[in-house]
Amino acid sequence: MNKVKLAFLLALVALASAFVYFDVAQFLTLDYLKSEQHSFNSAVVENPALSALIFFVIYVVVTGASLPGAAIMTLAGGAIFGFWWGLLLVSFASTIGATLAMLAARFLLRESVSRRFSSHIKRIDDGVEKEGAFYLFTLRLVPIFPFFVINLLMGLTKLSVPVFFVVSQIGMLAGTIVYVNAGTQLAKVESLSDVLSPGLLFSFILLGLFPLISKKLVDFFRSRKVLKKWDRPDTFDRDVIVIGAGSGGLVASLIAATVKAKVTLIEKNKMGGDCLNTGCVPSKALIRSAKLVSDMKRGANFGLGEMHAEFKFEDVMERVQRVIRQIEPHDSVERFESLGVDVEIGEAEILSPYTIRINGKVLNTRNIIIATGAEPFIPAIEGIEQIHYLTSDNVWELRKQPERLVVLGGGPIGTELTQTFNRLGSNVVQVEKAPTIMTREDPEISEMVAAKLREEGVTILNGCTATKVEVVAGEKFLICEGESNERIPFDELLVAVGRKANISGYGLENLDVSITERGTIEVDEYLRTNYPNIYAVGDVAGPYQFTHTASHMAWFATVNALFGTFKKFKVDYSVVAWSTFCSPEVARVGINETEARIAEIEYEVTRYDVSELDRAIADEEAQGVVKVLTVPGKDKILGVTIVADHAGDLIAEYVLAMKYGLGLNKILGTIHIYPTLAEMNKFAASEWRKNHKPEWALNMAERYHTWRRGTAVQPGVESVS
Ligand SMILES: Cc1cc2nc3c(=O)[nH]c(=O)nc-3n(C[C@H](O)[C@H](O)[C@H](O)COP(=O)(O)OP(=O)(O)OC[C@H]3O[C@@H](n4cnc5c(N)ncnc54)[C@H](O)[C@@H]3O)c2cc1C
């Protein structure tokens, strides 16, 4: 730091120290203002110019040095100088002070911060270049952040000083008016009855409503800004167009039709999207067949002797298609049209926030809901393009069973398919670059699944990154590097390393719809994109990529699109559950231990071992755990992981409990049918209760019983006679 900077910094520190040392804050209170109001008013009458100058300078120093007290001084401006003079003085003093604070931050910090966080600052600078003035304006208008923070932050950007000054002056004006006006009313309070005067009440109501009104104003300005370059039709042919007939789009269009809105649903491929055609439904159908094969292999455990499933792989894969066909009518064009949805089959292209082209026609609409889903992500692996690799999109077309299958990816999809193909008789190697599979779960849970897969004959290679596919004399190999260098021969390679949102090729680029760093469409808490009438739901927006979260989001987006003028609803992710349908299943709601530690949330763990459960023993499924995280000393549930047969169904009880704030005591006090797997939920609650039993009350009870029996009190000593 050079000498000038150091001197400047020291001066600021001295000023702040003096502020604290002389307890200047005591003069910046409402009480002080009231007690000295008469002397202030007399000073203004005697020498108005000097009083105004002193007030102005103090205001500039307080805001310029980012000292606390600006709000009370604004009230004082109104109380001492009246509305118009107070407004004039505060408006300019606050802007000058803010500009000085911004310049001070720029002078002291920008260089060093830019050096350390160059990429971040570059991104902010790019944003500021594009939208800086507007952002500053909205920050000024909606006082979510204290103004001194905004001043300091803007100092780190390269927003020009004149723009900062003018935008601050205009942006802060509304707030200044409200506060100065409240100050003028405060000045009139002489007695208790004045407190209830209409003027004062109105000013306080204005103070309270100001953040709300300013937020509405910002919404309005933001909408106008983004929509102004597009021609808005005078009338609309429909209320909403939904793009994509997967889990999100189907539910969105159904809700719209149910509330009598005019809705068009556009699908370019198959109705039902990924879930029905290439995701949940086929995978669960295949998992079921594979489970039966696995159960038959364990026939001896059931007292049935050696058993062996005779089957043709192609028949199993045909059954998967039959299941899809059986469910298809639920999502069909006919069904949706009968429910009042106009369905168009073809590729949608967004032309403007109000128009969409489909099959050469241009449809107009008041709102758009994007539900275009995601697709398998294919990593850059040298040579992968020379083979026909499998993904969750095309694996369902297989009719010849791969003898040697490599599954790339240890996430839920990779793990489900690894176990399934292995159970159906393929030799499966699962490759995962992380140290464990199922990295989202606690290590002990991932290890339980991995142990089960290994026990069934899967080879899992952790810490192994696939770098190359080689084809030598017709034989295919996957080269992996990491903890061990591997050259794995295979017949088929299934790539399941994650899914990327479908965000290109249908017009988002032309509209400049904002995209997150994760490559999903950016949405706010109401699921709006940066266009107020364009919403996004499901995999294309995230953060979760499940069927049930897509349909959950669809409700919020549709209701906000259709009725947001009256009331908007924030999407609620407070209790989200999911399951991986391997055997045993792994289901979760809320946080796990790993997440609790990262978020520094205090927790207590209660475990119930599923191998103890009567029904699980009877079913030959006695494996797994119920792991419950609670607030220390309380039965409030923070999260639950269940590893067990049917865990995906069993977790529902905990989902309900968390959603409605029911604790473990309530679960313990609920009758569960014997013998069921659901009892494991109650037994986990019972474990928690045992760990929290009131020792003092039990001691008292023991004494009471002993006294009733007429024997001596000897806690802990059993009487045999
Ligand atoms: C193998 C696998 C197993 C899974 N298992 C489960 C599970 O057990 N449970 C679970 O909850 N989730 C599961 N999922 C995830 C689930 O399938 C997705 O989260 C869900 O389908 C997302 O729904 P969506 O509406 O966002 O998108 P999708 O279902 O993908 O639908 C998007 C639709 O948009 C269409 N579309 C795209 N662009 C356009 C355009 N320009 N014009 C017209 N139409 C367009 C597409 O053709 C597609 O039909 C699984 C996924 C996979 C791959």
| Radius of gyration computed on alpha carbons | 33 Å
Structural class: alpha/beta
Silhouette: globular
The order of strands across the largest sheet is 3-2-1-7-17
Q: Which residues sit in consecutive blocks of at least 5 with pLDDT less than 50?
A: none
Beta-strand percentage range: 15-25%
Terminal-residue CA separation: 86 Å
Present as ligands are: flavin-adenine dinucleotide
- Percent of residues in helices comes to 40-55%
What count of helical segments does DSSP give? 27
**Count the strands?**
22
Describe the structure.
It is a single chain. By secondary structure, the protein is α/β, with parallel strands linked by helices. It contains 27 helices and 22 strands. It has a 5-stranded parallel beta sheet. A hairpin with a 6-residue loop joins strand 21 and strand 22 (637-644). Bound molecules: flavin-adenine dinucleotide (FAD). Flavin-adenine dinucleotide (FAD) binds at residues 243-249, 266-269, 273-275, 278-280, 283, 347-348, 371-373, 392, 413, 502, 506, 538-540, 545-548, 550, 581.
